[in-house]
Each structure stands twice: as structure tokens, then as C-alpha cells.
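Example 156.
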Amino acid sequence: MLNKLLTMVENGRVLALASDHGGFEMKEFLRKKLEDSGYTIRDFGTFSEESVDYPDMIHPLAKAVNDGEYTTGIIICGSGNGAQMTANKYPNVRAGLCWNEELTKLTRLHNDANILALPGRFIPFELAWRMVEIFLSTEFEGGRHINRVNKISKTL
Ligand code: RB5
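Predicted structure in complex with D-ribose:
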């Protein structure tokens, strides 16, 4: 069982998902789409539209990605900003806040983002799903971007 789980994680078929109330409806929409596509989801909440503080859901997800428990996460709050700011406190996390397909592709190609941050109140759900598909299927370009990405966590 553990081996199977590890293999799934290595294959990127296990995803970590989290939102606050501002992203709850989009999270539920994306979770269903992802499960229908064969992904196993670890849902860090929230689990209703009741008002919550986004760091309470985003910190546990970001720590799990930071520690290598999950290779990829999707986080959603109303604007996407609070979720992204929280996640990027962790040195191994690169959370990209995106609101269209091109930005989503670029944050994988150039930034090797391991978390996609979405503005749940500002983009259509179908667009968010297309962005998730792009995020999951785009490889890091490497090359000149490797040094840049390595420097991100080296604060002065
Ligand atoms: C919640 O109202 C809202 O502040 C939150 O979802 C997010 O937009 C914060 O950055």
C-alpha cells in the first residue's frame, strides 16, 4: 500500500488541494474534475463556505509540499494573493498566482512552480480547469531558468 502510494506521488497523480471560503466552490469544482481524470486528491479544506482564515488551510498544504509529501498543490482564495503569500513562506515552495492560460504555462516553464494559486472569485471555473490541465502537463524548461529558480530562496 505504501509503495503504491509512493509510486502515485512520484507519478504526480496525487495532488494537494486547499482553499478558504472564497475559493471553496472552485476547489469543489476542481476536485471533481481532477478525480474524474484519475487523480487522487488530498484535500486540506476548507469544507464549507463558512468564513475562515486562509493561512489555516494553506500552511499545512505548503508545509507538506515543502517537505516533499506532495510534488504539486493547488491553492485558492478569493483573490489568490493571500494563499500565494502564505505558501511562498516555505523555501521549497514556488507558488505562482495565475489568472490565464499563458501565465500558467509560464510559471511552470520559467519558475518551476510546484503550487498553482488561483483567484476563486475572479476567473470562470472552466478557465481554472483549463489552467490546472496546463499546469499539470507543462514541464520546467530548465536551461537559463535553473540558476534563477535556485536563487529565489537565497534571501540576503
Ligand atoms: C476572504 O474574504 C478573502 O480575503 C480571501 O479569500 C483572499 O482573497 C485573501 O487574499
